[in-house]
Amino acid sequence: MTTTWRLRFELSDSPGALARVTVRLAAADCNVLALHVIPVPGGVLDEIVVRAGEGVLPADLVDAVRSEGGKRVGITTADLKELVDEPTAALRAARIALADPSRTGEALRQVLAADSVTAGEAADGQVQLGEWAARRGWARFTEVELTRAQALLDLVDVPAPTMRATVLDDGAALVLRPGSASDEDLVSGLHSRCSMKTLFNRYHSGMRALPRRWVHRLLNPPRGTTVLAQGGDQVVALGQLIHTGTPECAEISLLVEDAWQRRGVGTALLSALAADARAAGFSELVAWCLPSESALVRTAGRAGLPATTRREDGLLRVSITPGATGVRARGAGVIAEKTR
């Protein structure tokens, strides 16, 4: 089985250095598909995309580059769809963001070849771009890349969305927004109005009230985000996107108050979480449901998100692809976005 890889490295400025790297890779049964030279202060970085033969490991490719004097070698998987010149890639990303501003984070991730782009303040290991935080572990961002990303933001001219207004089929209006520590009373109220069946379907355990420490953790997940659906002065639903140990996969969960079920609230929440997942670079969303529950699969269908299921460890594992929705969500539509 062949695998396509992107390598970025620094070579000494000597004649034939890059040619020797490509010869070394060819000897390791690798086919060079693309090559880019990236200017950086004091020199350049070389980036190549290779298709490795069967049995060739990433460490073999790194060793091949280092054996010819390569330094600061970074490697990540590459998608053949990304094998276009940088101006074309930037134009495609701009088209995505201009057509749908809610996908600006996804467009930024493509321009930067980032591991993730999320709304908010940059943490350790992230770079701040306006109201967006970008992370890339396989190689450091270059000034050229950051300038290109900022140009995209200047073109689109929309800040990171933090609130979305949604209107349901019955005319009810909701706001989808990030949760914060100040929402503990609202989230406790949501749980108090949910039936035991609804709580059991969400937490897979019997409870009448949610412990305060659980409420705090819901609003401050250590590896994810929480989105609240608010109508008037009440939070009527809650959705979470939690990073798992797998880079391409995140776990999701939804809780909708009984009186608001079957009205499109879950569809709106799932669509918002899928948009956040795309921007963060996830290709799969996973949820764990009781075997008798099929509500999430129906919700994914209404949101236009492909879903598959299988039984695992006594539960139903629902796998959802957070790609661009191909069907307009029935029962809810995002009509506006607000910012901080």
Automatic annotation (TrEMBL):
The keyword Electron transport does not apply. PROSITE patterns: ACT, GNAT. Residues 6-78 form the ACT domain. GO terms for molecular function: acyltransferase activity, transferring groups other than amino-acyl groups. Residues 174-340 form the N-acetyltransferase domain. Pfam families: Acetyltransf_1. The keyword Repressor does not apply. Keywords: Acyltransferase, Transferase. This is Acetyltransferase (GNAT) family protein.
